[in-house]
Design brief:
358 residues, 11-stranded mixed beta sheet, two-stranded antiparallel sheet, 13 helices
């Protein structure tokens, strides 16, 4: 059997309503079929996901394991990959038809590059995209200094699972992923990868990210079990990545810059779940504000400081309940009157009125 150039690794758990679209989007790529193998790692689904995946045999190889989370799924699936390049896809997302040709083309042009990421379409219901999110231009990142580390942190969302393509040789230096990273195991991979070889992001939306009730990372779920799962995974990343980065020769100032957003989000979630001292909420929210925005109008800055003052007189859990309420209320429209701040991340977001841009 000819060795495939690309292994597409699809991780799935109870995606019976989505997994077929994910697999079909891979099989319909404008890329030579003989150069692709498709491996689906099922993390112990209890719905009809196994039956749906098996319908695609022998074009799709199905691996089933006991439920253990995304890290355990990757640790089981990646060693089975026979390709020189591994492209990841979550079982509830799907790709644009030119995804593989675009990312593999970059790797072929740049033998020194280890990882490729890109933009996305966001889909909130059905199959029609509602928002396009892309970097302002193509970027290249290494973790050689604090400035590059800050750029990496601003672009990290463009290397998540369904947009992550990486050389197998780089992956082999990263495994195993700590299995306490039940969700967001992709962050462990894409954080270490640019310490090994350059990572690039393309200013193209090459996949469709589906928002639904079971998203564990992009959507803040009210389910306390899911909240604790996400918080524990973020804390595990914050605890395990420093040692792994140090082993790859990354300096401490770079490690601190790379991991600051993860540490902030882990602490924010811990405060919202378990509570704590109000001054901790103040410190976390002030740091988050400085990380999130480049330019802020005087009126918006005053509004933010009023908000920060509330953290000092409000128990953390109550403060975050108020924050969640505000984020979904009409009052959030006040931001436009105050002058929308400019985000630190070099990102373009465009609403899509109609049609399925591909």
């Amino acid at each position: 059997m000819t060795k495939p150039f690309v292994t597409v690794l699809i991780d799935t758990y109870n995606h019976e309503g989505f997994i077929e679209q994910a697999i079909v989007s891979v099989l319909e790529q404008d890329f030579p079929p003989g150069e692709i193998e498709v491996v689906v790692v099922d993390d112990g689904s209890t719905d009809d996901t196994p039956d749906i995946v098996r319908r695609f045999a022998p074009r799709v190889r199905y691996l089933r394991k006991a439920n253990g989370g995304q890290a355990s799924a990757f640790n089981a699936g990646i060693p089975q990959a026979r390709g020189e390049v591994v492209a990841f896809l979550d079982g509830d997302d799907w790709w644009r038809k030119d995804k593989l040709s675009a990312v593999v083309g970059e790797l072929e042009k740049r033998p020194d590059v280890g990882t490729v990421g890109h933009g996305r379409y966001e889909v909130y219901s059905g199959s029609k995209p509602h928002l396009m999110v892309v970097p302002e231009r193509n970027y290249e990142v290494r973790l050689r200094n604090a400035a590059e580390a800050r750029l990496f942190s601003q672009l990290r969302g463009f290397w998540g699972t369904s947009r992550l393509t990486i050389r197998k040789a780089v992956l082999d230096r990263i495994l195993p992923i700590p299995e306490q990273v039940v969700v967001e195991a992709d962050e462990y991979i894409f954080t270490l990868a640019p310490a090994i070889a350059p990572a690039i992001v393309l200013s193209q939306p090459l996949f469709y990210y589906r928002f639904h009730d079971n998203n564990l990372f992009m959507i803040q779920s009210p389910d306390p079990v899911k909240q604790r799962c996400k918080q524990a995974s973020l804390a595990a990343l914050a605890n395990t990545l420093p040692g792994a980065l140090t082993k790859l020769g990354v300096s401490q100032d770079v490690i601190d810059a790379v991991l600051e957003p993860t540490r902030v989000e882990a602490e924010r979630m811990k405060l919202s779940i378990e509570g704590g001292k109000p001054w901790r909420t103040f410190a976390v929210e002030r740091t988050s504000f400085s990380l999130d925005y480049r330019h802020v109008s005087p009126a918006y800055r005053l509004f933010k400081w009023v908000t920060l003052s509330l953290t000092l007189i409000t128990p953390p859990r109550r403060f975050y309940r108020m924050r969640d309420w505000y984020s979904t209320s009409r009052l959030r429209g006040m931001r436009k009157l105050l002058g929308e701040p400019t985000t630190s991340a070099p990102v373009i977001q465009e609403g899509i009125e109609s049609g399925n841009r591909a």
